[in-house]
Amino acid sequence: MAEAVDLSHYANNILAAKDRPLFDDAVKAEKAGALRAAYVMIWLACAESLKRRFREAQKRDGGAGRIVGEIENKEKEHKAVDKLVLMKAHEYGFISEPGHTLLNHIYEMRCVYGHPYEEAPSHMQVLHAADVVVEHVLSKPVKLRHGFGTQLLKSLLEEPNFLDDQQTAVKAFTEDVLPRLDESIYNWLLDCYWKKLEEFYDDSSMAIFSRRGTWFSRTMLLEVGVNVFSHDNWHNKSSRFPNILMRVCSIADIFKEIGERAQDSLVGLIITKSATHASILTRLERLSLNGALTTRQQERFVKHVSEMQPSAIRSAGLSTKTCYEKLIDALKSHNWNMQNPVIDLIVSNGPDQADELKKNQQVNLGRNLLQAGQGSARSAIGFLEKLSQNGTSWPFNVVRGIALESFTNDDNVIRFKKRHLGRVLSAIDHLQEDQQDQLMAEISASIDKGTPKDWETRDEFKNAIDSLKDYTWAKSLVASLKAKAASL
Predict the structure, then answer these.
(1) Which domain-ending residue is among 88, 108, 142?
(2) pLDDT tens digit sequence for 160-178
(3) Which of 84, 107, 142 corresponds to the end of one domain?
(4) Cα–chain-centroid distance for residue 428?
(5) CB 112 within 8 A of CB 129
(6) Entry pTM
(7) Whole-angstrom Cα distance, residue 72 to residue 52?
(8) Distances (CA, A) of 13 to 20, 87, 276, 457
(9) Residue 414: which H helix or E strand, with range?
(10) What's the structural domain count of the chain?
(11) Is the pLDDT of residue 4 over 80?
(12) Is 306 in a helix, a strand, or coil?
């Protein structure tokens, strides 16, 4: 008997238990010296494993189901299917190009060795067959490649009801399907997807597919790693797919990892597009607030915001914190066309965003809102009227700035801004007692240290005192005003 080769160590690399029985029979055959039988059983282990993979894949992929049907029909007709299985496995992506070439040779030799009158394989040929089949098929998980990827993209891009139009639903689907994909098709899949998404970026009728593509792409990149592409590749793709990548990469965890050249390209594109689509700037704002922009990118963003018209800033929907300096500049302009849009933005952004400002910024904002109201800016008057109904509806430091500005400026110069004093005092009247006490103490101290403007006469002081006399919490301020008036 010829010396037997030991195939058993290959079995250790077989991944699925269902693939073991036929290979175990090959091991037994070679130990018995039946090398022809061992070779045939090795091939059968390969062919049956590929069939099993298609049966598993058909649960998720109609294309795999059609292949299973074709194989089963031929088997019912008692026709050989091994060649078909091998070809379809290659087309579908279960086996690579080099793997297909090697396995095709194993199949051809199996046909030769399976004939009882032909030459039997050598020990080395049996060993080689086992090595190829285990390496390219039996040791591989059922990972889906181009065939499934093509079908997946078709569903994502053409079927509006394929997934619920919710980020959570798309995220969950993406996380579920990714483990089934062969890593080798990640780049190909995203390239193909982004190419199609780029083609209909501005088509409102395709908005559901654009949203889905953004959510799918982000989830995939966060799951498999942004380094699926090199920085050079990211820079290239930012030129090929600028519109979809503006969306996909506008979250910090992705943007930070794509490389500075790609980042610069997308920042420039967003700034350019904001001329006609101002709201796109919120993507840069989100990156800025999350610390994802470089110093230079941040400078470009801030400079662009500083050069925007107030009406454009409002259209952009930027946060109060982001455009604080521009808002203050507009409020100081003494131009209603500048003031009203930014006040409307401040109001629409709401008190929570104002509360994100530093305390001194909140006070400054309050002072400038009062100044705009003093100058009869329509939106400022509306704001002060609503504030008078509930002084706690906005952050205390904003109200504090309004109250301070009604009596003295930053340099403790006394000049009464009386036009809206009634509204201001009504707002203060809604504050908590400790807040009222703090305000009165601060304004009184400023009056005590302050010097009146030339035009502020004793009569002006008397009018201010008369406005305060009905508020018990204003006693200390009234005392300070009387003392200062007496010194004139």
Answers:
(1) 142
(2) 999 999 999 999 999 988 8
(3) 142
(4) 42
(5) no
(6) 0.69
(7) 12
(8) 10, 24, 59, 98
(9) strand 413-414
(10) 2
(11) no
(12) helix
